[in-house]
Amino acid sequence: MGRATKVRVAGAALAAAVVVGSLITAGGASGAAAPAAAAGCGVLFDDFNYSSHTDGTLGQHGWQVRSNAGGPGVPGATWAPENVTFPTVNGDKVLQLASSTDGTAAGTKHTEVLQGERRFLEGTYASRIRFSDAPVSGPDGDHVNQTFFTISPLRYDNDPLYSELDFSEYLPNGGWGEAGPINYQTSWHTYQLEPWVSKNKSNSQRSSVDGWHNVVATVADGHVKYYIDGTLVADHDRSGPFDVYPRQAMSLNFNHWFIDLATHNGGLATYLEQADWVYYAKNQVLSPAVAVANAANYRSTGVRFVDDLVGECGGTPPTTTTTTTTTTTTTTTTTPGTPVGCAGVSAWKWESVYLENARATHNQRLWRARWWTQGSEPGLTAQWEDLGRC
């Protein structure tokens, strides 16, 4: 989310996804084995070799392109899947998030791509990201936020299990009362919506990061360490008033959005954020140099996609466990993520009023309203209880 005093609702539209396949080559078939250096406890690697946001392989690989309304950013703005593209840059395809505004909410388009299945916790995260200081077209000066982060749902205000790690939130023109350029790394304990209270640890670099950079973080042994181009820029631990070490698995996200429209100068402005690749090594602490080298090794051997994030360290998790107590009840626990019954439940709508205990589906999950609510998006606000994926 960023620094301790800023205000925004958590930015990921969280949902369950089924990730298919282990090793995909440039031609889309099973191919070369993963580099030995990357083996151990499971890896996700993606070179973003897709044709468009409607490419079926994108969804098969667990990626979701956001289209639903809601925060963060300008109220009433659109999350535009058509603005997520995969152009060729320097001979290789990249993920591109093009966000634009004409100074009005109706004319503002945000973008987000995420691995919605919450499978990301300890380990090493890395991505090669191109941040932009200036728009590719139109007037400059907007409060735009270019991000790479992990996040879990906030079930209610001050949820003690809430977890979020902002590896980079780059504000080229500033925002939240700060002048730009500024790049944040923030680890979250929790927050409260109304009145706003944030509990986190945050560092920032008050200089431009325009261009391509390797963004790396390690999460292990009570420390979250953040690196930009191999340089340690933040180390957040459990000490102090807020234990910011993540407490539950999270989704993995890129998003690109406007904080507000206060500094727009007129006309349509379009900004770009690009990602060349993303890499996550589960339960492994790798140096930035090794993480980047492992990603390069996949690419050099023609491996475009890897996903073997199963079990605690590469093993297959149990499918069903049944426990019978000495009382008259029998408790059955299935694998986390087992679908719940969503048949006949209507999809959540921004304009609808929901009374206490009303149910709605959203992002392939079933939700229960804790109290009267309208305009609060399931997964991003405390008003909704997550009952599981459909």
UniProtKB/TrEMBL annotation:
Annotated ranges, domain GH16: 29-289
Family annotation (InterPro entries): Beta-glucanase-like, CBM5/12, CBM_sf_5/12, ConA-like_dom_sf
GO terms, molecular function: carbohydrate binding; hydrolase activity, hydrolyzing O-glycosyl compounds
UniProt GO BP: carbohydrate metabolic process
Residues in the signal sequence: 1-31
Keywords: Hydrolase, Signal
SMART domains tied to this protein: ChtBD3 (SM00495)
One CC-aspect GO term: extracellular region
Protein name: GH16 domain-containing protein
Species whose genome carries this gene: Umezawaea endophytica
